[in-house]
Amino acid sequence: MSSGPYRDERRAGAGMAAWAIAIAYLLAARGVGNFFPLSAFGMYQGRSPDVASRVLVVGASGEAAEITAFDGFSCAPAWPKLDDVRHCAPGDQGRVEYVSRDLQVYLDAHVTSDAAGMEDARIVWRTWTLEDRPGPPASQDCELASCRVRRRAP
Questions:
Q1: CB–CB of 70/152 below 8 Å?
Q2: Which of 79, 89, 126, 132 is exposed most, by the fewest CB atoms within 10 A?
Q3: If you count DSSP H runs as helices and E runs as strands, how many of each does the chain have, helices first?
Q4: What does residue 121 show for φ and ψ, rounded to 5 degrees?
């Protein structure tokens, strides 16, 4: 192999192209605030919320269960809106939109007028206040609907 002037020019051109690409990357990365692989992604750098929530079915005995543990609902109002929690304190905190939407789809698909095997229950939006203290977190229920429900067969 020879190292003539042509080969040296190609090597110099490749080196200049590499530097140009590196500088372009750094400028673009600075513009969007992402210096991969040294990035601090926003989902990891922020403080987590102090409130968590879940839509649950609470039976007459006070036992709470997921909506998907039931396969029949007859409620008042007839079509409860699980994402309408504006009347509940602490407002809309802790609600995850896609989870509420999925539960709403499930509930809508299982509304029935067949009262066989149904029991009284409430659909509630339960919020937990996450504090830096010992013991379980404090919870609060906000009623979204009063229902008769049928448990899913095991």
A1: yes
A2: 132
A3: 3, 5
A4: -160, 170
Quick one: tokens of 53? 């929530």
**Does the bond joining 77 to the residue before it have cis omega, within 30 degrees of 0?**
yes
**Which residues 6+ apart lie within 8 Å of 66 measured at CB?**
56, 57
Looking at the DSSP bridge assignments, the partners of residue 76 are 146
C-alpha–C-alpha distance, residues 41 and 113, integer Å: 49
Query: How many angstroms separate the CA atoms of 81 and 42, rounded?
Result: 32
Separation CA 105–CA 92 (nearest Å): 20
d(CA 90, CA 67): 22
pLDDT in tens, the chain (154 residues): 555 555 667 777 778 888 999 888 878 777 766 666 666 666 666 666 788 889 999 999 999 999 999 999 999 777 788 888 877 876 667 778 889 899 999 999 999 988 889 999 999 999 998 888 899 999 999 999 999 999 998 8
pTM: 0.67
Q: Residue 149: which of 53, 54, 60, 55 has the closest Cα?
A: 60
Instruction: State the Rg of the chain over Cα.
Output: 28
